[in-house]
Recover the amino acids of this structure.
């Protein structure tokens, strides 16, 4: 293993967290007996391996496992599902920035908030970690060919086919359609009033992702969106999808009802795929589904209907609630941080080529990441700081903890978009979209959507200051959302 991604195909350098330095010799890292605990904010500790991005190496050494909460696994699972941010905050405060969580079927989970260790895990090579196994919960909904569930060569094959659809020339078209949809939805808002803006963002995000994936809306679209929403509404509880609860009971259990709705949605998906395959104008169409039907891998093999269905479902699911939640957090952060209002309005009015708006979005995704953790299953022993995690363990990288690390972000509790204004000397660990070869495939689209929609909203409306407390961080399905639905007082500018 030479610490390189070359040979993995044409994945861009941006798909990696940062360049991997040659791994230090194993003996260097074995060292004397390490301390058992990592205080989460101790500066010397954060220095361990910082920014080396050392690759994980399989090694037979002393296995030092991290400490963690001693509560029974069922109790920890409840805490985690009810309050994922509080759970990792309490764990890190008590046990350090790498701690053991007794979650999942084996209970062998290490929550990692230490930035150096996260860099190591994200920079790991496909033969060192897997993600598909850890995402198995979603299998009944997204299907076995979903990008989320694939690993190794199959994952790379699908990623290589999908990536070009979200890059380059497609962007001008995305920009225009997001503008059009945002203008349409925002022009329907009242002159003033207190509104849960998350509803607006949800409408926009669903319309955007369906047009990106399938092209301009036609007569079939309302039924398709309704069937999709019905499936989403039943996929909310992790208990519905947990293997132990996957019992249909004649279609009467939550899982059985979900399967019925999923079958109805699949029928509509297959009609879309079939009609697209028969479309004589396929080559002129700009939507992702048409691109996927026309695409072939390096052996000239195209995607089967089942594979197309699974990627379609995956992208629709991964690409709408996340963007709506990111936008909701951005207005919530503005509501609570009115010192940003003046530079933000100047920016949306065109004063600085949107530099402050972009920095504001980055800071919002830093303080309020939409996805709390990224999981990787270890195939080799991972030496992370003073710990050695054996194969089979799950590395649960906490985006929430990493973004609050004072070594990366001085005064992390302060909302300061200026951190991201150029020139930024050294980019801190900013991972709301994950990293490495699993980094979010929709990142550029999501950033574009946040920029265009916020600009369209703020160039017409003011978000009034509000001295209410910051919104509680809630969990909905598998993402972090403002508990108050981003309720804001708006008034026409
Ligand atoms: C603000 C919006 C979004 C956020 C915060 C977000 C965040 C993430 C994160 C954290 C991951 C996991 C990365 C990792 O494990 O390293 C991910 C993966 C993924 N995201 Fe997003 N995402 C967003 C929008 C989108 C959009 C718009 C799409 C689709 C067009 C999308 C499609 C995907 C897919 C397919 C994956 C799996 C990638 C793989 O396994 O190779 N996401 N996203």
């Amino acid at each position: 293993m030479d610490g390189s991604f070359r040979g993995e195909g044409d994945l861009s350098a941006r798909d990696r967290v940062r360049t991997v330095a040659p791994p230090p010799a194993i003996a260097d890292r074995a060292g004397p007996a390490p301390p058992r605990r990592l205080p989460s904010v101790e500066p010397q500790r954060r220095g361990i391996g910082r920014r080396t991005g050392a690759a994980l190496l399989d090694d037979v050494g002393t296995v030092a496992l991290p400490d963690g909460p001693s509560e029974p696994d069922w109790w920890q699972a409840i805490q985690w599902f009810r309050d994922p941010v509080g759970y990792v905050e309490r764990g890190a405060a008590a046990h350090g920035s790498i701690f053991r969580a007794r979650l999942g079927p084996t209970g062998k989970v290490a929550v990692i908030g230490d930035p150096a260790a996260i860099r190591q895990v994200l920079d790991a090579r496909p033969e060192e970690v897997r993600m598909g196994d850890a995402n198995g919960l979603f299998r009944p909904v997204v299907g076995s060919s979903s990008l989320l569930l694939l690993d190794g060569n199959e994952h790379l094959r699908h990623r290589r086919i999908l990536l070009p659809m979200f890059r380059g020339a497609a962007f001008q078209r995305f920009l225009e359609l997001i503008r059009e949809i945002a203008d349409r939805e925002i022009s329907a808002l009242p002159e003033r009033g207190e509104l849960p803006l998350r509803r607006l963002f949800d409408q926009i995000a669903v319309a955007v992702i369906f047009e990106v994936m399938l092209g301009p809306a036609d007569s079939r679209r309302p039924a398709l969106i309704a069937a999709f929403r019905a499936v989403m509404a039943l996929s909310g509880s992790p208990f519905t999808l947990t293997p132990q609860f996957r019992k249909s009971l004649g279609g009467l259990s939550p899982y059985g009802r979900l399967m019925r709705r999923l079958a109805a949605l699949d029928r509509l998906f297959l009609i879309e795929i079939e009609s697209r395959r028969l479309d004589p104008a396929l080559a002129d169409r700009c939507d992702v589904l048409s691109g996927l039907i026309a695409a072939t891998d390096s052996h000239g093999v195209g995607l089967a209907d089942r594979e197309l269905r699974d990627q379609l479902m995956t992208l629709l699911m991964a690409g709408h609630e996340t963007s709506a939640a990111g936008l909701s957090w951005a207005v919530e952060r503005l509501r609570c941080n009115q010192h940003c209002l003046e530079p933000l309005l100047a920016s949306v009015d065109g004063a600085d080529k949107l530099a402050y708006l972009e920095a504001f979005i980055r800071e919002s995704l830093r303080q309020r990441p939409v996805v709390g953790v990224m999981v990787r299953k270890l195939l080799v022993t991972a030496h992370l700081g003073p710990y050695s995690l054996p194969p089979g363990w799950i590395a649960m990288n906490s985006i929430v903890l990493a973004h609050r690390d004072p070594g990366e972000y001085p005064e992390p509790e302060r909302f300061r978009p200026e951190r991201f204004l150029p020139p930024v000397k050294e980019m801190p660990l900013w991972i709301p979209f994950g990293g490495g070869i699993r980094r979010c495939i929709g990142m550029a689209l999501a950033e574009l959507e946040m920029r265009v929609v916020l600009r369209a909203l703020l160039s017409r409306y003011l978000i009034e200051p509000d001295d209410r407390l910051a919104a509680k961080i809630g969990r909905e399905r598998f993402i972090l959302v403002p508990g108050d639905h981003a309720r804001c007082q708006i008034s026409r500018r």
Confidence is low (pLDDT under 50) at residues 1-55, 57-61. The chain is about 45% helix and 10% strand.
